[in-house]
Amino acid sequence: MAKLNLNGLGKKEIKKFYEIPKERDKIIRDTSASQINTNFLINKIAKNLHPKVQYVKVAKIIEENEETKTFVLTPDLETSTKQLAKFKPGQYISIEVPIGESLYKRPYTLSSSPKKVEENKYTITIRRVPYGKVSNYFLDHVEIGDAFKISAPTGELYYNPLRDANHIIGIAGGSGITPFMSMAEAIYDKTLNCKLTILYGVKSKSDIIFRERLEEITSKTDNVKLAYVMVVDDDTEFASSFIDRELLDKYLEEENSFFVSGPLSIYERMNEVLKEYNLPIKYIRHDAFMSEMEIYKEEEYNVKILTHNEEINIKCNSKETILAAMERNGILAPSRCHVGECGFCRSKLISGKVKTFNDTIRIADRQYNYIHPCASYPESDIVLKLPK
Ligand code: FES
């Protein structure tokens, strides 16, 4: 046994120190063998605040623009969900959507203020995307009264006063505006105490979502500022360029956190621009919703999925994630965030090559060939072992 260095301790302290194991053993011996009581009120409150699943119905559908709708969700009162769980502005829910024979899960950021939970309401805002199986299904087929199973709110793109600067620069691309809409609403109704400057990149004027509401909020509070950045239309009303350092410099305050939300292209671009500031990593947070169209030329690969009791062979297109291919084939793999963050889908790559984006898998996991199928695209035939 290694010799302990007890220099600096008096006799009394040393005696007390050597008595710790005896006391600990006595406590273990005296502990009752009966079941721990889990019926405490605090456990019930915790369960209500953080339910594993929630059952909701679509109560209202709002057309935001030609390609975007907001869905207002309320509890499905015929189920165990009577009250929606609280959330922080910027968090998302994962929604289960049965389409044909398959069950898809997708993350959607809540676009409403957490204050709306008091009225038992969440909103999610969905934009049409090429090949967006679930997004396009929502826009074309979902109606008032349709019921869904969703997760508790989760995700890291929210303001934390212990970690973040009090001024957030929110860089949004397209439908990546949703977390900042939620934050703007929350700052306006005083459930969030920070300042927010939104730099909103859109292709053209008609792509802007929430324009009226955002401008109403910015006209009524100094704590939310908004600048549009147009990349295609040349319009004097807007900064007509990409978001670059010159533009960011105009909005900097003494201390700033940068939150990025949007498609992969904006995330990669901002990574380059923000590098120039040499910021500690905690000041940059992101929520990347990847558009598969941006990524690859089309190939089809064979994917062998090993579960704990069977072997399933499917085809996976190089433009879809391995998780999306599994869902398309009716394989219900564990998942939640769908953007490589939560670790729920962590699986072992037995053979083959994948390309990953926005993946937060741990270095040790990577060394032992673990991947997140939700953020991995095949580059060859592969064999994958799912978690139990
Ligand atoms: S579902 Fe969250 S990491 Fe894959």
Count up the helices. 9
- Tell me the structural class: alpha/beta
What's the number of domains? 3
| Structural shape | globular
Order of helices and strands: HHEEEEEHEEHEHEHEHEEEHEEHEEE
What is the gyration radius calculated from CA atoms?
A: 24 Å
The overall pLDDT average reads 87
- Can you tell me the residue ranges where pLDDT is under 50 for at least 5 consecutive residues? 291-296
> What hetero molecules are in the model?
FE2/S2 (inorganic) cluster
Classified by CATH, the class of the largest domain is Alpha Beta
User: In the CATH classification, which architecture of the largest domain applies?
Assistant: 3-Layer(aba) Sandwich
CATH level-4 homologous superfamily of the largest domain: Nucleotide-binding domain of ferredoxin-NADP reductase (FNR) module
Helix percentage? 10-25%
Main beta sheet: strand number and arrangement?
6 strands, antiparallel
The CATH topology of the largest domain comes to Rossmann fold
Oligomer: single chain
- Spatial sequence of strands, sheet with the most strands: 4-3-6-1-2-5
Strand content: 25-35%
Overall strand count: 18
User: End-to-end distance, in Å?
Assistant: 39 Å
What is the structure about, briefly put?
By secondary structure, the protein is α/β, with parallel strands linked by helices.
Descriptive labels:
Ubiquitin-like (UB roll), Rossmann fold, 6-stranded antiparallel beta sheet, alpha/beta, globular, binds FE2/S2 (inorganic) cluster
Commentary on this structure:
The protein is an alpha/beta fold. It has 3 domains: 104 residues, Elongation Factor Tu (Ef-tu), domain 3 (Beta Barrel), CATH 2.40.30.10; 126 residues, Nucleotide-binding domain of ferredoxin-NADP reductase (FNR) module (Rossmann fold), CATH 3.40.50; 86 residues, Beta-grasp domain (Ubiquitin-like (UB roll)). It contains 9 helices and 18 strands. The strands form 4 sheets. A 6-stranded antiparallel sheet has the order 4-3-6-1-2-5. A 5-stranded parallel sheet has the order 9-8-7-10-11, sandwiched between helices. A 5-stranded mixed sheet has the order 13-12-18-14-16.
